[in-house]
């Protein structure tokens, strides 16, 4: 289980920089309180779309060994280096964009710059992009806050659960399995062909969720990634590449959040008569 432990950053901020301030870009506002961030619509500061407390970005070097058996995939991740000490050095706003810059210090002493860009996207939300200066780093770990009673829905077709709060969910297209953990079917399928699957196996996963608190997030990365919802105070996203683009949606109802997402990824064509 140690390989599944969350990777959390430690934020280091000079006292002179730990001054609360607000940054407006487009229709949105990012509030900095000296140790955390809160994103909200400019006219509704009480509506929190995305927020962090302390460190929110780490990186590293990893190597994944992947085995395939009859459409089932098994990923064994080895973390070779972690960069968990995060600094936040500047905020630079210009029109619809706000750029946060800082550095990540690694366990071997190396330091990489990073940039986190927030770009207003009209009423449907905010685009988020993370990039690293060091091309060696091929893992990103992004963490943000959640409420303890928040429920998480979506993620494509997770066949064994409706509310994914409390779970660690890999986004990996594979066969859904025979039995999916059901006794004694799944163990028998695993014994003969390693094809039993488990609760998370799905041939249609999607890195998108919406919550009972009317928050929604979509990762646009095509790399292997894992959403970690086990911590009642935090959402974790592990991405197996050194950059990330994503969307933080804004909406006043679940239907509005679904429409915002559909306006990005497209709608299914109507069925013929």
UniProtKB/TrEMBL annotation:
GO molecular function: carbohydrate binding; catalytic activity
Superkingdom of the source species: Bacteria
A Gene Ontology BP annotation from the UniProt entry: carbohydrate metabolic process
InterPro entries xrefs: Gal_mutarotase_sf_dom (IPR011013), Sulfoquinovosidase_GH31 (IPR052990)
Entries under PANTHER family matching the protein: SULFOQUINOVOSIDASE (PTHR46959:SF2)
Protein name as catalogued: Uncharacterized protein
Highest classification ranks of the organism: Bacteria, Pseudomonadati, Pseudomonadota, Gammaproteobacteria, Pseudomonadales
